[in-house]
Design goal:
single chain, about 425 residues, alpha+beta, Helix Hairpins, Adenine-n6-DNA-methyltransferase TaqI, Chain A, domain 2, 3 domains, five-stranded mixed beta sheet, about 35% helix, elongated
Length: about 425
């Protein structure tokens, strides 16, 4: 649907709100104190009777308490009840919070730091939700902020006047956006699944290339390694510790966030930087100074890196010299194996690294376990051929993924524009 081609209203008037602009002449503006009723019902000692809820980019969701992720308080006494149809707003740190509004379909409890409102029935809840979703895009309520934490005081929010069409039009707009957004969301879901399948296919292709080679007619033998299975008869299997020099990152100072160690000339990478890097790592968010370098160690450019804690088994190649904590291990390949071939072999082994992680409070690996893991070693010329083959295949996959990601971005932009146009009356739905 071309938004610009949509029908518009006959006459408009100034809303007095910069980011809303003009609204249809038939619309009114009602203070939020008439639309939302503040409600704070603490669950107290009855927290076990409620589902735990969170406000996320996907709206208000139930938390999985059987497989919990993230931090939880020791007790939930100060959490507050949320009922189906309630609005949940985050009125503090608005600028930094990815999503500050949710309309609940669940009965549960949420942190007392949020503000829970019961709609009064003076307006359609669906319309109000889409309007404040629009307001949350690009954080348009900045004029309401107070203090250093970008907080919207409850009385300031209560006094804000929401532009409202007549109730039948509110309902029509909400229904229109429900249909259109569901269609867009499904298209995005399909493209995200296509990206997942492309990435999965790439991983399978790499694993097959580094364990079976490129010649399907080659005589095979048993590798003696369960996860590898059969390999070309002229290949070897060797342990990582026999194929490379292995060394661990270091950062011995406590506390880790001591400001005296930072803001120097030495890049200081974290496991998250490795996870985001792809094949080569050069982007960093922190640096160490000379004092920081003395409690760390500088790892040279060209080193293969693997994370051994938090996000275990992420692999990259260091494209600039940098420092790392001990949750990262480096590999300097021996002449027997090409660096990029070893990188592809290790990047195909994340499941193996996970299976070798130590089960304790936080799953992790140690250098001894990593050094004992085996990889296939073909002759040098085959290593080079496999590297070229994988690189070409990866470029094609990356190109296909880039197209899908661009399409997703376009769909999301269209969804945002559609919501904005509908809830401010720039297009006429009925």
């Amino acid at each position: 649907m071309n938004i610009a081609a949509q029908q518009t209203h006959d006459a408009y008037k100034d809303s007095g709100i910069d980011w809303v602009g003009e609204i249809p002449a038939t619309w009114d503006q009602i203070a939020n104190k008439h639309l939302f009723r503040l409600r704070k019902t603490q669950v107290g000692k009855r927290s076990s009777e409620y589902d735990l809820l969170s406000l996320t980019l996907r709206g208000i969701i139930k938390r999985d308490m059987e497989n919990p992720e993230g931090k939880f308080p020791a007790e939930f006494d100060t959490y507050q009840e949320v009922r189906p149809g309630d609005f949940v707003f985050c009125h503090f740190d608005v600028e930094e919070t990815p999503r500050t509004v949710g309309l609940s379909t669940h009965h549960g409890m949420i942190t007392g730091a949020y503000t829970v409102y019961e709609p009064t029935g003076e307006a359609d809840s669906g319309f109000l939700y889409y309007f404040y979703l629009h307001a949350d895009t690009d954080k348009k309520l900045r004029s309401l902020y107070k203090g250093l934490r970008n907080t919207i005081p409850k009385d300031t929010f209560a006094a804000f006047k929401t532009p409202l069409p007549p109730l039948p039009e509110q309902r029509a707009i909400a229904a229109f956006l429900d249909r259109k957004c569901a269609t867009i969301d499904e298209a995005v879901r399909i493209k995200e699944e296509q990206i997942r399948l492309l990435a999965e296919r790439r991983q399978i292709l790499i694993q097959q290339a580094v364990t079976r080679g490129l010649n399907p007619a080659a005589p095979m033998k048993d590798s003696g390694i369960d996860w590898i299975g059969q390999i070309p008869a002229h290949w070897e299997v060797r342990r990582l510790k026999h194929l490379s020099e292995i060394f661990r990152g270091k950062f011995t100072h406590r506390p880790r966030n001591d400001p005296r160690l930072y803001d120097g000339e030495y890049p200081f990478f974290q496991t998250g930087d490795v996870a985001r890097a792809g094949m080569f790592l050069s982007e960093y968010r922190q640096t160490l100074n000379e004092a920081g370098l003395r409690v760390s160690t500088l790892i040279p450019k060209g080193t293969i890196l693997i994370t051994i804690a938090a996000n275990i088994g992420d692999v990259t190649i260091l494209d600039i010299a940098g420092c790392f904590p001990d949750s990262v291990v480096g590999f300097k390949p021996h002449p027997k194996i090409e660096r990029d071939f070893l990188y592809y072999s290790m990047s195909a082994m994340k499941t193996i690294f996970m299976n070798n992680s130590i089960a304790n409070a936080q799953a992790n690996l140690n250098v001894e376990r990593i050094g004992g893991i085996t990889v296939c070693v073909p002759p040098q010329d085959e290593q080079n051929a496999i590297m070229e083959y994988v690189q070409t295949a990866n470029e094609k996959t990356d190109s296909a993924i880039d197209v899908k990601q661009s399409q997703i971005a376009t769909l999301k932009e269209y969804k945002t524009s559609l919501i904005n146009a509908a809830v401010t009356g720039k297009i006429k739905v009925i």
